[in-house]
Structure formats: C-alpha cells, structure tokens
User: What shape does this take?
Amino acid sequence: MLFNSATFVVFFCLFIALWPWLRARKNTRWAYLVVASMVFYGWWDWRLLFLIIWVGSVDFVAALGMQRFPQRRTLCLVLSLIATLGTLASFKYLDFGINNVNWLLALFGGQTEIPLAYLPLPVGISFYTFQAMSYTIDVYRGQLKPTRNIVHFFAYLSMFPQLVAGPIVRAAHLLPQLEQVHPTTAKARWAGLHLILFGYAKKVVIADNLNPVVQAAIEADVPADSGALWWLVMLMFAFQIYCDFSGYSDIARGLAKWMGYDFPLNFDHPYISSSFREFWTRWHISLSSWFRDYVYIPLGGSRNGPLAAHRNMWITMLLSGVWHGASWTMVMWAAAHAFFLSAERVINWPKRLGTLPGGRHLATLIVFLLTVIAWVPFLATSARHTFQILAAMFDFSRFNLGIALEQVGDAHLHLILIMVARQLYFHFRLDRTWRSFPRPRRMLEPVVLAGLIWACLFLRGPTAEFIYFQF
Assistant: This one.
C-alpha cells in the first residue's frame, strides 16, 4: 500500500476514525496497531506477513531468553542475529553471492554454474530486520528491558507509518510510548499536517516529476557528447532521491503525530552540509546512527588511533553500501563516501577552508558537487555504466549545454531552480529569520498549506513507488 495512493488515504482515514475509541486500553491499542499494520503490509502480498512474523518472533523469544538465562545471553543473541541476518541475506544477497561465485568459477575455468534462487525482495525487509536487531542488541547490552507481551513488541516492530522505509525507530524510543495513551493535541495535529503535506509535495510534485527524465536517461545509451545533460540528470536525481526519501519520512512522522507518537528526525537538510561528516549527521539519520552505534563503535570507533578509525569507518561505510543494495555499484557509492570522509579527516580541508572569507559557502558547494558525483554509481545499472556516465560528465570538450537544456525542458529546469533556491534558503539560515516573525508566519501558514494541497492535486507527476522500497 503506497502512501501516495487513494487506497492508503482511505485506509488511514478509517484507522484514525476508530483510533480515539480503541487506544484507551493498551492491549486493545496494541492489537489494533498490529492488525492495521499487517493489513497495510500484507496489501502488497499476504505471504510477506510470514517473514515479519518470523523475524519478530525470533527476536522476541531471544530477548526473553537473555532475561531468563543471563548466562546464555550471548548464545541467544548469536542465534537471533543468525536468524534475522540469515533471513535478510537469503532474500537480498543470495543471488548476488551466487552470481559472484559463478563469475569466479568461470574465471578459473570451471564448467559448472550454480543456479540462481530468484527470490523476490520483500518490501521493507532491510528496515524491520534492523529494528528487530537493535532491540535484541540493546537487551543484550542491558540498555533495555524486554517486553513480555508479544503484541506490544509487534506493535513496535510493525507500526505501519515507518514499516517499509523508515525512519528506523529504536525500541527504547517507541516501546515506552506504546505503554501510554497519548491523546493528540491541536498543536500536534497541526504539526503533523505540516509534515504530511510537505512530505507529499516533495514526493508527488518534485520527485515524481523528475523521475521520468532520470529513468529515460538511465535506460538510454550514454553518448560521449552528453556531459552537460548528465550533470543535469545527476542534479535532478540528487533532488529526486532526497525529496522521495525525506518525503516518506516526513509523511511517516506526520502520521505518527496524528496517532500521538513521536518518530525521530530522519533528514535535516543534508545538502547544506559543509563537510561529509556533517552530511552523514543530516542524511538518513536513523540509519547513520544505527551503523554508528551497532557497527562503528563496537569495532573500536576512533579509540585505537587514526589508522584504526579509518579502517572502522571504511568497514561501516561499505556495510552501509551493501545494506542499500546487493550490487557492486552500491559498494562503489559507499567507497566514494568513505574516501571523501578519509580525505576530510587527513587534510581537514572543510575547517581550513572555513577560515577564509566565504569559505563555508565554498565548502558547502564542494561537498554538494562531490555528493552529486557520488550518486552516479548509486543510480547506474552497472560498474561499466558508472564509468561511462562519469567519462561523459568530465569530457568538457563536448559539453553541449544548450542541447542539454533543450532536452531537459523548462518544467524540469524550474524544479531544479526551486530546489536550489530551497537549499540556499536553509544554507543562509533564512528559516531562522522567518521564525522570528511569528504573527505573519501564522497568518501565511494556512495559505501555504492550501497551496501544497493544490500542488499535490494538480501538479503531481506520474505515480511511482518510493525509491527506498527497493532497499
């Protein structure tokens, strides 16, 4: 069930209409959340429900086992991680691994070929498996007491607003909220409406309108004289993926506010970052913090010197790339960011540049352009395709800007300009200035929200799935 579908609008209206009467008692509240979430998730394919029930049941039992048998808590954790990661690996990485083994066998003259499994990738599996693992790991560390009510646990794990594309909400954040009744205030509903409408505008007005041009470029050949076109395409993709994913997170957070819950911020204007370290504190914050807390710090973080810190950061980033997709292009994307982060640590160029007049603005521009370049392998269909696009982008002898502008079209150029203006608005911190005028801001808010509704209805692009559904 897509957020940007009429089916979901009807579903949520029915859900929220009954919510005030069914949330009073916690057992009824949890059961209602679980049933609604299972309907939401099973709408794609009812067979997917068995996977989330399997993963959730394993981690629920493992956490109770750690509490009941503390001397065997390591065994319980290992078994739960094997089951959870094994489920994720089977559906997401099995065919990728088989393809690479077959390539190695052929390289060394092997005549046999292992058949592919062709398992489908279940929607949202990367998100709910990470939520389940964070629960058992926190229980293992003694940072969280396990819940003894399985319905309570599944209300956390399967809560539909964030189920299929995040944010990745930690059990320590959401389980206590589920214990209490949280009647929504008018202020919370107004804030939720803001998030929902801005999220929908990002998705259906910006991302969905940019998507056809980006997809057409990916499916076509890469002419050598298309450098300017590919710079525009990659610029569009940078804004598309940001609006698509942050739009989903905004909608999820807004829906949660209408339900009386609080989800953590997942995007904080990442393209205004003046360093890559800052970028990763603003982009997909729930995933970045997950890898920091459960991979980077357990590996040793920066405690054992700079070389170990670089190694641990590279391992963390490469695992993050693999999380995003079972392909070498995702590894290339993660390696590019790891390289940028390492260079930043060694040279410390953002700080040095920031001491110069206008240095912060220049640093932000450099980080943004390097981020756009790094999106190439993320978007490309193969490593060869990646190098073709990069070769075209940096062949300045055949740039053809005029032809590229004609191919992209005025409407899409206007979207690019709108997004650039938006980034400049936050980069120069004009939002803080605007917040210092509360009265005109309150007067204009209804006009802005009405404009967003109009744009979502009449300026929407061709409906497309959210990009992160494939992860």
Notes: The chain has 21 helices and no strands. Residues 6-181 form one domain.
